[in-house]
Kinase-like protein
Amino acid sequence: GSGAFGRVHQATFVGHHYYSPYPRDARLAVKCLPRPSAPTPGPQRDSLQARELSSHLKVSSHPSIATIHQVLFDKTYFYVVMDRYDGDLFEAIVDKGVFKDNDELIKNVFLQILEAVEFCHSNGVYHRDLKPRNVLYEQVGEQMNVRLRDFGLATLNEVSNTIKCGTS
C-alpha cells in the first residue's frame, strides 16, 4: 500500500543466519520513505518523516502498537521494518463484518486501542489521526489483536498550534 510519504511492501524473511533478529519465514512489512536527498514533494517532508519515526519508535514497545524492528537506509530511502498483520480495522469492519453481533470482540478491541493511546500519551506522543485504517489487526483464533500505526501526524506537544490534522 502507499501513504502520503511512502509505500509499504510485504516481505518474508528467508535468511538463516544465527544473528538474525527474525525467525525464518517471518511475515514482515517494509515501509519505504524517500530520503531528504531524493526529489521532494515539499520542503517539510524531511522533518515530518523524522517526527513520524521518532514518535513511533518512542512507543513501539507497547503490545498494541505496531513494532518497528529496524530502520535501514540507502542513498534514496529509509526502510522501516515492521511486523506484517492481517489487515486494518476498516477492512475488518466494512469488508469482513467481523464485529457484527460480537459485543465482546468490540469491547476487547476498543480496550486495546485505549491502552495504546494511553501509553502514547503517558510517553508524550499524541497520535492525532486515530481512525480504523490506522489500526492493524491480527486474528489469532477467536482473539483479535490490534496495533496502532501511522504516526505521520503525531506530535510530542501536548498542546499543538496545528489547527488541521488527520484525514479530511
The first helix runs from residue 45 to 59.
